[in-house]
Structures are given as structure tokens and as C-alpha cells.
Amino acid sequence: MAVLGIDLGGTKTAGILYHQGEILERCRSTTDITSSETVIEGILSTCSRLLESSRSRGITVDSIGLGIAGFIDFERGVVTEAPNHPLHETPVKDILQSAFGLPVIVDNDANVAALAEARLGAGRGSRYLVHLTLGTGIGGGIVIDGEVYRGAQGAAAELGHMIIDENGPICNCGARGCLEALASGVAIYKRVEELSWTKKRSPMLDEFRANPLSFRAEAVGRHAAEGDELALSILRDAGKHLGVGITSIINIFNPDAVTLSGGLLGCFSFMEEEMRLTVDGMAIPISRRHAKILTSTLGEDGGTLGAALLAASLAG
Amino acid sequence: MAVLGIDLGGTKTAGILYHQGEILERCRSTTDITSSETVIEGILSTCSRLLESSRSRGITVDSIGLGIAGFIDFERGVVTEAPNHPLHETPVKDILQSAFGLPVIVDNDANVAALAEARLGAGRGSRYLVHLTLGTGIGGGIVIDGEVYRGAQGAAAELGHMIIDENGPICNCGARGCLEALASGVAIYKRVEELSWTKKRSPMLDEFRANPLSFRAEAVGRHAAEGDELALSILRDAGKHLGVGITSIINIFNPDAVTLSGGLLGCFSFMEEEMRLTVDGMAIPISRRHAKILTSTLGEDGGTLGAALLAASLAG
């Protein structure tokens, strides 16, 4: 059985042709976020190219799976809202089913990444796995008994919006002190910005002040590697906050594994020690000892592989 | 089919004989926490009395379920640790199975209460339900697809140990800022104690200062009802903290219902408004609109009924 797995992010649209446990073809393009139409066109052309490739190989594709950053109405396959691209109440499932005449399944990108980690990645063999995507924001996915947990309306696993500091900074979601407001790429960027208003000097702050708009959270990792003390302390703090969030996850789920992926892993070596110290000091010992905390082994394929696994579940 | 449902708390041991959806007999005694032997003797005698009653009615009991406040090794039926009574690595399941020759199932008391609420109580009909027991401490239970979620080792659902304020007060578990450290009976007691060190005056503080050791958190509700402003503000704060915890629960689980039980419900009318304002202001709207927040309708029967339902699941 062959399937397509598509990963739609705010900056790139990636897809794979997946056949008998192997990625036969990868396809990747920039997401054109001009309008919901241009985003959909990007998805359609990615699928078309992969379907063409399957035909030239003499393989029949059975279904298509999509992981999309945003709130998904899972049953209807509608993207209700997405922070990083203009899809809004967009019936992605229906659009693709009509275009290609194949069964389509649409899910949140972090749910899909969690499934990939639990079945094929760092958490392979885990019955209970919780996944965090550490990027601009923080997404979450929960796998129970090998299946994605979605809750009553498909809106579950918003682990970036666990509140870890009720007196903390305001989050994009409007609440205060969410994990995302303290340990995400945006949180790190904002911390640099705050420091830039002080009289402090450091190579990182020089770079930020020279061009704040082009500065990216990932640069903090580079400066930390070069010994910038402010960069180091920002990442250590973020690591501690991440550890608080993982502590709650361990106490709530008693999982086999907590897995981490996303762009912020580039800074993770400077966050990890504080994260582990925090979890070791705060989580309930029996659950702490059992839970492995692992970084993704699937890299950029995590999203597309998870989408492909979801598609395969459709075909039964 | 008839079963026994036993609820072992730190102060009382309660049991029911449950037959075809009805409680035929209730039995209740003080838990003698002198030693693990006296606790076990109390359980055995409760079971014996209920079994005698079943015989006199000509009913055959098929199995026994127990809900116990503490950490339970679910597979082995061992109470590994319990904060409020002296059971420690006690093989409760084996002891009862040998004594009565019946199948026995042992679970955490909050898990059991969650099951009762989901099947028979305030959350009846919920597919996804999260339950909090608000007492001296805060326990949690998670029901997914009608079954208790226990995680990898039966240690899941420690919702009282979600961290909601990483800079908050130290919790009994050793961590900082757990929900239990901010919204439980103990947390409320400590807040009164702190105020008693100040020069403030109020009827509640007078009562506390006269006899701190016999003062109970529930008394704060009585003083609030009589208009004590300090009592009111303590309960409003606790309600806000509870709202923060419920916000995280709603964002994580996208549940059909969050149900509440326990001794602190006596103070709940003074906590509820702040709790609801907090949840309405902070939780993700789609999940917030869907989740009902309900107080238990089972009262003191919640624990024994849940244990009976668990026992019934054994008998298939």
C-alpha cells in the first residue's frame, strides 16, 4: 500500500510518497501564504507531483494524510483557524478528496509528529507518549495505546497552553504564563528584545539592535555557543521553564516517553541541563524514573511520516 | 451480578453492596491508622459485614473493588505509598483475594471517583472526563472512552501536581507551585496560618489563633458565609488558582466534562465565581465552550460506587 504524507507549515509545504515502510520520494516547496487559495494550490501541486511519481513507478496511492499547523476539526477535515497561514474554516479534506478521488485525513501537525515519534522515531515502542514541537510556538501531541488522543472535538493536546506560571507573561492565546509564553522561539525572542532595552552589551544584543526584525530565536543558540553569557542565561531559563512543563506532563500522563522536535532543538544543548535538573527535582519519582525524555530522530521527516501513517490508518 | 465497593480514606472506611445498579447496603467505620495491620483489619471487617448481608439476602458477590487514597501499583494491586494512612508496599489485592476467595481490583481513590462521575454522576454520558477531588490534598482521575486512564505504571492523573505557578509555594510533594499547594484544604489552612502571624483581626483569625491545631480549612467557608472579608478573599484566591488548573486541563484534554468532588465543595460557592472567570478568560475558546464544569452529584457514595463499578468490570 502506498500513501502520501503532507506537512503544511507556515513557511514550507513538504510531502512524501510512502510505500511499504519507505520514503520513495520527497517534495518540498515554500508555502505561499498570500491567500487561502495559494496555500491550497501549493498542497494540490505537491500532491500532483507525488502522484505523478507514483504512476511512473507503477504504484497505486490509496490515501492522503495531512498534518497542518492550526486548529483542525478532525471529523470534518476542516482547518478552523491557523496562526501562521491564512486557512480559516477551509474544508481541506473535501477539497483534496474531490481533486484526487482518494480518501483524505487531516490532523494537527503536532498530533501527526507525535504519531511518527511513537511508531517510527525516538519513542518507538511507547504505549504512552507525549510529544512537544518546540518552534516559534509550542505544539503538543498525545499518543495513547498507539493512537492519537484528540479529545471531544479534536482540540486536545494544546500542551503549549498549559499554564506554568499564573503570574507570568501574556501568551499569544491571551492567557498568562503558558509554557509557550516562556519556552518557545517567540518567548526567547521577546526576552532578547527586553534585554535590548537595557544598557547591557553582548554580541547577541549587538546583532539584535542592528536589525531586530531579521533576528531569529535560533541565533541565540549560536551566540551561546560562542560564549555569550546573556544568550546562555536566556536558554538556561527557557530550559527550566520547559522542565516545569515536562514535569506536569509526566505527573499527568505517567508516559513511557516525552519526545521533542522542532527548530528550537538547535539551541537544545544549552537548555537540556536545566530542563533535566528541573524535572528530576520536581516530578513524582515513580513516574520520573520511568519516563524517557528524548529528542526526535526523524528530523524534518517527522511531519510527513506522521501524515503518511495517518493516511495508512484510513486504508486500514 | 453483585459486587462490593470499598473506599479507604485516611479517616473513614466505607463500603457498599451493589447489585443490579442499586446500593443494597452501606457500611462505614473509622479508619484505625495505628498500623497497616489495623487498616487492613478494618477493610476485612467491612467486607465481611457486607458479604454477610449479601448471604442473608441470598445474593452471590462476584468480586470486590477498592479505591484507596495513595499511589497504587495497579497491575499487582499493591499500595506502594499513601500519605494519610500507614499502608506501604502492602499487597492489598492478594490479602483480600486469599481472605475471601474472590477476584479483587485496587485503584487510586480519585481514579475510582472519576469513573463513578463519568458513568453514574454529574458527568454521566461523558466520553472524555477529568475529575478533581478537592480535599486536604487534590487528587485527579481521567476517564477516556469510559475507562480510567492510568498511564504506564498506574501513576497517571496526579492532577494536583500540575505546576501552575513555578515561583509559588512549596508543595507536600517537594515541587513548587503545584495546584495542590495553592487550592487544596492544606493550602487554604496555610494561608490562614500566614495571616494569623500578621496584626490583622477577623472572626476567622480569632478562631484560628485560639486553637490552630483543631482549625480546619472547611471553617473558612463558614466564616465567609458570615461575611468575614479575609475568609472570602482566601477562598476567591483559591478559586482563581483552581481555575488556572482547570484551564490547563481543558487545553490538554478537550474534555466533555470536568467534575469536582470532596470536602472543599462545602466552600465552593465562594470559590466558583473566580474559578469560572479565570477559565472563561484563559482557556482555548473552542474547548472552553464545550467543557462542562460540574460538581459531583454522588456525594459520599462517589468513592464506593466507583470501586463497585471497577469490581463489576472484573466480573466482565
In CATH terms, the superfamily of the largest domain in chain A is ATPase, nucleotide binding domain
CATH topology of the largest domain in chain A: Nucleotidyltransferase, domain 5
Q: What is the mean predicted local confidence, pLDDT of chain A?
A: 96
Total number of distinct structural domains of chain A: 2
Sheet-strand content of chain A, in percent, reads 15-25%
How does the overall form of chain A come out from the CA principal axes? Answer: globular
Distance between the termini of chain A: 10 Å
The residue fraction in helices of chain A comes out at: 40-55%
Q: Helix and strand layout, with pairings?
A:
2 copies of one chain form a homodimer.
Chain A: E1 2-8, E2 12-19, E3 22-30, H1 36-56, E4 61-68, E5 71-73, E6 78-81, H2 92-100, E7 104-108, H3 109-119, E8 128-134, E9 138-144, E10 147-148, H4 179-183, H5 185-196, H6 203-210, H7 218-225, H8 229-253, E11 257-261, H9 272-282, H10 285-290, E12 292-295, H11 301-315
Helix pairs in contact in A: 3-11, 5-6, 5-8, 7-8, 8-9
What does this structure look like?
The structure is a homodimer. The first copy, chain A, folds into two domains: about 1-115 and about 300-315, Nucleotidyltransferase, domain 5 (2-Layer Sandwich); about 125-295, Nucleotidyltransferase, domain 5 (2-Layer Sandwich), CATH 3.30.420. Helices cover about 40% and strands about 20% of the residues of chain A. The first copy, chain A, is built from eleven helices and twelve strands. A five-stranded mixed sheet of chain A has the order 3-2-1-4-7. Chain A has a five-stranded mixed sheet with strand order 10-9-8-11-12, sandwiched between helices. In chain A, strands 5-6 form a two-stranded antiparallel ribbon. The longest helix of chain A is centred in the C-terminal third of the chain and has 25 residues, at about 230-255. The model of chain A has no long low-confidence stretch (mean pLDDT about 95). Chains A and B meet through strand 9, helix 8 and helix 10 of A and strand 9, helix 8 and helix 10 of B.
